[in-house]
Amino acid sequence: MTSDRGPGRYKVACVQFAPVIGDLDGNLATIATKVRAAHAAGASLVVLPELAPSGYVFESDEELAALAGPVPEGKAAAFLVALAMELGIHLVSGIAEAANGRVYNAALLAGPGGFIGGYRKLHLWDRETLFFAPGDLGLPVYDTPLGKIGIAVCYDGWFPETFRTLADAGAEIVCVPTNWVPMPSQDPDTEAMANTLHKAAAHSNGLYIACADRVGVERGQPFIGQSLILGPNGWPLAGPAHRSEPETLIAEVDIGAIERVRQINAHNHVHADRRRDVYR
User: Fold this and answer.
1) pTM here?
2) Which PROSITE patterns match (predicted)?
């Protein structure tokens, strides 16, 4: 892909809300309202939660099949692509993708010119394994006017290889649609383990990371909010967001600053210092 890179400074928004299971039309209407508001606040890149159009806690394959669709031709995907084109922004959203007789917990990237590309979640969490096929598209990085964008979904963030692979492929910002749930044994009053993992990934790879979580309780499953936008040094630029209420985070990124941040001092660079002769 070719790039028509701008100056590298722009605003990223992470939209945290509570999708309603099965209410495709209602969720898309909510998404449109919140994305328009983020755009009005100056966001050029907007990230939505995992499975934002459909909800998450499915009871049957039949229920999921009725809410899934092809990407980018399906109802939800086409709506999201059209919204990005109308507003002239880049948009990343989780989505249930139907393809080749399977359903994937997926994400799409759209821009002012239309659909750019997709991603299928590699690491499935808990009951997702009952309904979704494992991702088979690898970890693509898309070269856009906003920089090189990678995508991960929720549990993918528990694996350091996810972000290292994306960074090695040139990613500058990774968008993470997610539905974080409480971790076993964690004090609910402490910051989410997910935030710790993504701070470490941003720091050790020199990446911007934008995590858009959901809130609410769906069929007995609580979600923990705390969406987060991180700089390439690992420190938060916005968030963590509220634990139980909808909230949109907005932060400015500077893609041109990444290389300076990766050069920690005169002698150390977070990529160049890797001992590839030792690692297997």
Assistant:
1) 0.94
2) CN_HYDROLASE
